[in-house]
Amino acid sequence: MEETEKNTTGTIVEVTDEGPLSIKGNFVLNDLKRNNVSTPGEVLLCRCGKSSSQPYCDGSHCKKQA
Amino acid sequence: MEKAKSFSGGRRYRNEEITVYWKPSACVHATYCFAELIEVFDPGRRPWIDLSRAPVDKIIETVNMCPTDALTWKWNDNEKNRDISPDQTNHVKFRRPELLEEDLPETPKPKSVVVKVMPDGPVILNGTFTLRYNGKTKEVSDSLISVCRCGASDNMPFCDGKHRKAGFRE
Questions:
Q1: How confident is the model at residue A52 (pLDDT cuts 50, 70, 90)?
Q2: Minimal Cα distance from B114: which residue of A?
Q3: What count of Cα atoms within 13 Å lies in the side-chain half-sphere of residue B69?
Q4: What is the pLDDT of residue B143?
Q5: For a Cys staple, B15 with which of A21, B50, B51, B84, CB 3.0–4.6 Å?
Q6: Count of other CB atoms within 10 angstroms of residue A39
Q7: Each residue of B42-80: b (16+ CB within 10 Å) or e?
Q8: How many A×B Cβ pairs under 8 Å?
């Protein structure tokens, strides 16, 4: 039913343990270094600083942890 | 006329000009509505209210006769809801003012969350969203968080400014 409008955007941000930052839903991603604005719907952002495809996760954190 | 829609506490009915709200829990069965205007208010029909069957002024007059707030009404054009005289007894302004704010038919779209990836720095998330971290779930409402991207923060998962000292270059 469309009665009471929800005060949420439905966007879910999850900090995964020892892994990337997962963002899903309605959001605008503004990458200031690469001057790139997008609305991808879903991204995994690097949190360890080691990815070679910044700002996205490329799985590098796994190699270092092992 | 659009189909009856449920909303909190009852149903609403619309035609081109007005919206009529029905709140069954408030009805004391005074029967003014169908005694006056059976074409529109017919308890034996589904849906029992059909706003296409009488002139708007007649419907308004009948709704105003309802002794409770079981039946209330408003203009669809919100401008016209501003200067309503008290003799319009069952206008929502006097009975259920919360319904004046109800923006029909479309519900406002939620604002998008803005995610800013700062150059050689954190990622800043601004808006309203659900945040999960360290096994916790938190509703962030119209505010801002800053998440570490360099891996050096002592306050994980949040940024503490350590990226500078760590010489983070992406």
A1: very high
A2: A28
A3: 12
A4: 86
A5: B51
A6: 10
A7: beeeeebbbbebbeeeebbebbbbbeebbbbbbbeeeee
A8: 117
pLDDT digits (tens, 9 = 90+) for B131-142: 999 999 999 988
Instruction: Take residue B65 and report the two structure tokens written for it.
Output: 């006769």
User: What is the C-alpha to C-alpha distance for residues B130 and A11, in angstroms, rounded to an integer?
Assistant: 6
Instruction: Provide the percentage of residues in chain B whose pLDDT is more than 70.
Output: 91
Q: Tell me the residues of chain A between 5 and 64 that have a Cβ less than 8 Å away from chain B.
A: 5-15, 21, 23, 25-33, 39, 45-50, 54-55
Query: Which of B140, B141, B149 is facing A47, going by the closest CB pair?
Result: B149
Name all contacts of B163-168 with Cβ < 8 Å and 24+ positions apart.
B163/B120, B163/B121, B163/B122, B166/A49, B168/A49, B168/B120, B168/B121
Select the more confidently predicted residue: B6 or A58.
A58
* The overall pTM is greater than 0.90: no
pLDDT score at B110: 59
